Amino acid sequence: MNSRSGALPPPVASLAPGRTGAWRFTVAPLDVSVPRIRHVVRDLVRRQRAPLSGDRLQGALLILSELVTNAVRHAALLTSEIGVEVVLDAHGLRLSVEDGHPYRPRALEANPERQHTSGRGLLLVKAIALETGGDCGVEPTAAGGKVVWAALPFDAG
Predict the structure, then answer these.
(1) What is the DSSP letter of 139?
(2) Which domain holds residue 149?
């Protein structure tokens, strides 16, 4: 998961057995989907009692909002549904957003080109993920679209 070392560092805090899992949602590529999925994911993470501080949870929700907003704005013509996956495991929280557009955002590359003015939201995603000791990236799908993801470790116990 982590492009710097190949894996996230060992967790300081962990999630109780039975509270781990993966949840997948689909939303329409509409602006109204952004706050709706943010609230669903916030409630899910709280219900699972993930060891995330309020600040870290807000950072995760900001990341989610940015990723879903990008899918709505840039992939709606090629995407009938946006996939959102939430994974809670012993390492932390991973948020993934899948759309049907083939473009891979450059802002998540190791050294994004500075002359581009777009992608600032993704630079924020990257900064939040890296600041917490997590990571982010983009992967192609078999259908020609992409999955943009961010992983955040749990807070120290």
Answers:
(1) E
(2) 21-153
